[in-house]
Specification:
The structure holds two protein chains of two kinds. By secondary structure, chain A is mostly beta strands. Chain A has one domain: Immunoglobulins (Immunoglobulin-like). Chain A is built from no helices and ten strands. In chain A, the strands form two sheets. In chain A, strands 2, 4, 5, 8, 9 and 10 form a six-stranded mixed beta sheet that branches. Chain A has a four-stranded antiparallel beta sheet with strand order 1-3-7-6, with no helix packed on it. Chain A is globular and about 40 Å long. Chain A starts with a strand and ends with a strand. By secondary structure, chain B is mainly β. The N and C termini of chain B lie far apart (about 40 Å). Helix content of chain B is about 0%, strand content about 55%. The chains are: A mainly beta, B mainly beta. Chains A and B meet through strand 4, strand 5, strand 8 and strand 9 of A and strand 5, strand 6, strand 10 and strand 11 of B.
Chain lengths: ~110, ~110
């Protein structure tokens, strides 16, 4: 596609439920990133995928968070047993060449009630 | 710890005027890249300008320019001839050459008044 596509745009879920957030990066971009943006905070790095290499999961806040990237393209971020503190905007980005800036999607706003 | 500080939570500028957004950062690395991103209400982060730390010349993109002071670890953004469409959150960020994650500041909300 022409840009990074994220779905759903907004998600309201009950505490304790599992959610899946999807990211479809720009075709051909080998690097894919997930960030979390909480209210009043900057962006927090969550996970990084590069080609077929093992992902860097060092930013995932707990073992309730996991992510996968299938076929080097689409990525899914899964949050199990959601908590209210998980409420945030989850942003996905992709890039072809590192250090040249990423292309971001419009994010998924997750609200846990 | 590597941090980015944007000391101005909010700024206001009149249309056609010039505004400067401040950013300081702290890294022990010598080779890194600096960025300013704009986030309008649509939530999509848009790259405004990029600067390589090894370059002394300040980057410029049309009405946007930076003042990069490496020794002071300062990277301010100047917006000239401000337009209503410039209203957004602006985030300063850097990425070290030995890594790949962007380190972001908490942002400056820019209001543009007619």
């Amino acid at each position: 596609g022409a840009g990074v596509s994220q779905s759903p745009s907004n998600k309201v879920t009950e505490k304790g439920k599992d959610v899946e957030l999807r990211c479809d990066p720009i075709s051909g971009h080998t690097a894919l990133y997930w960030y979390r943006q909480s209210l009043g905070q900057g962006l927090e790095f969550l996970i990084y995928f590069q080609g077929n290499s093992a992902p860097d999961k060092s930013g995932l806040p707990s073992d309730r968070f996991s992510a996968e990237r299938t076929g080097g393209s689409v990525s899914t971020l899964t949050i199990q047993r959601t908590q209210q503190e998980d409420s945030a905007v989850y942003l996905c980005a992709s890039s072809l060449v590192e250090y040249y800036g990423y292309t971001f999607g419009s994010g998924t706003r997750l609200t846990v009630v | 710890a590597q941090t980015v500080t944007q000391s101005q939570p909010e700024m206001s500028v009149q249309e056609a005027e010039t505004v400067t957004l401040s950013c300081t950062y702290d890294t022990s690395e010598s080779d890194y890249y600096l960025f300013w991103y704009k986030q309008p209400p649509s939530r999509q982060m848009i790259l405004v300008i990029r600067q390589e730390a090894y370059k002394q010349q300040n980057a410029t993109e049309n009405r946007f320019s930076v003042n990069f002071q490496k020794a002071a670890k300062s990277f301010s953004l100047k917006i000239s001839d401000s337009q209503l469409g410039d209203a957004a959150m602006y985030f300063c960020a850097y990425e070290v050459n030995s890594g790949y994650a962007l380190n972001f500041g908490k942002g400056t909300s820019l209001l543009v008044t007619p």
